Amino acid sequence: MSADWAFSVADVAAKVPNEPGGMRFHYALRHGTMKVGLYAPLTKDTQSAHKQDELYVIVSGKGEFVKAGARRQCGPQDVVFVEAGVDHRFEQFSPDFATWVIFWGPEGGER
Fold first, then answer.
1. Which of 6, 24, 42, 108 has the highest CB neighbour count under 10 A?
2. From CA 53, how far away is CA 33, in angstroms rounded?
3. 107 contacts: CB under 8 Å, gap ≥ 6
4. Where do the structural domains in the chain lie, given as residue ranges?
């Protein structure tokens, strides 16, 4: 299923750049302040804090999520919320790790 308003993991995964060491991410949808993308890091998560609030919905694989120094295991169907401006990253993730990323709201996040 692929359209501007509906898509599958497979649709978007096919568009994720497959460059070793590169950012393995692709936006599937943008509407107003909301953006939905698929993130599938290969070896290291190099992201930094974002300007908007965000949700991760784990699609496949497993790993650890580190947020402001706290650490938690994560896997398929888990949801993780990160406030705007908070340092976070995935660590020790499996080779098949992939997650939806949903950004929304104003810069600085909602209060």
1. 24
2. 10
3. 51, 52, 84
4. 9-104
pLDDT in tens, 53-101: 999 999 999 999 999 999 999 999 999 999 999 999 999 999 999 999 9
The arrangement of secondary structure in 9-104, i.e. its CATH architecture, is Sandwich (2.60)
| Three-state secondary structure call for residue 11 | helix
Q: Using an 8 Å Cβ cutoff, are 101 and 55 in contact? A: yes
What are the beta bridge partners of residue 28? none
Q: Compute the distance between CA of residue 40 and CA of residue 85 in angstroms, rounded to an integer.
A: 21
Task: Give the H/E segment covering residue 13.
Answer: helix 9-13
Q: Given this model, what pLDDT does residue 2 score?
A: 60
